[in-house]
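TICKET #2291
ISSUE: user wants both folds in one file
ATTACHMENT 1:
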Amino acid sequence: MGTWVRGYLFLMDKKSFRVFIRGLVGDTSGLELKNFFSTFGEVVGVRIVCDGKTGLNKGYGFVTFTAMQACDDLLKKGTVD
């Protein structure tokens, strides 16, 4: 894995198959997240939350999958280092 990862905490929205990700390094890109999390299942959306004034990454974001199984697999893992 790249230098963008410090560790993650997974929480999910069971209705939309969305996973909350915490611990993103400041220069993490949406493409990096999509590529990494695609190993767990098909990714249909990625959102990295940025500060409205500075535009800098706030260290967290969301990944949305097409299936519940991907979310379940991540929750079983707990963290990714």
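ATTACHMENT 2:
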Amino acid sequence: MVSSFQSHASVAREVLRIAPGSIHGRALLAGALARRGSTAEARRLGGQIAGLDPGFSSARHAEALPYATGLSSRTSSTICA
């Protein structure tokens, strides 16, 4: 059985394959990686996001998602630390 985090990471990687500059794809992948414990890779992606959009806010990003209810603040702080 594929975990939801693996599924999210797969979707995010597909988004990045189609749209390599996607901040949303990077944020989704970083969140999935952080939740599975791959914090170094999640932080690396967070750095890429900051480079693409210096004003990026994980809170603003989460609010824009249609499924944002219940997102963990722990994940956001891990990515953007």
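RESOLUTION: both attachments delivered.
EXTRA DETAIL ON ATTACHMENT 2: The CA atoms of residues 53 and 70 lie 25 Å apart.
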